[in-house]
Structure to design on (103 residues):
């Protein structure tokens, strides 16, 4: 088993353990509305941060390319309160079109 597959397996197991830990630790208790809202917003915020970092950096350099334009298009769609499918389509199509024009 290569190091990559071992890492993927370990991350999958860790994810399953963390998902199971919540109900085991809380039992029948319900989280408050503030905690629920924070947890609900945490995944999209983390994903956005990872995409933006991946889109605008290469090593230690700032790179402005088609991926950043896709992130910007998704941000504009979000500001316009578009459905998530439209947001994703805006990001993907913008990135694809700009990459095609650049080649």
């Amino acid at each position: 088993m290569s190091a990559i597959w071992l890492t993927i397996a370990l991350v999958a197991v860790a994810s399953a353990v963390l998902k199971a830990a919540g109900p085991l630790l809380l039992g029948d208790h319900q989280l408050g509305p503030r905690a629920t809202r924070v947890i609900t917003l945490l995944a999209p915020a983390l994903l956005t941060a990872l995409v933006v970092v991946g889109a605008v950096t290469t090593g230690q350099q700032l790179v402005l390319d088609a991926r950043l334009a896709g992130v910007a298009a998704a941000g504009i769609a979000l500001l316009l309160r578009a459905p998530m499918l439209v947001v994703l389509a805006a990001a993907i199509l913008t990135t694809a079109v700009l990459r095609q024009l650049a080649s």
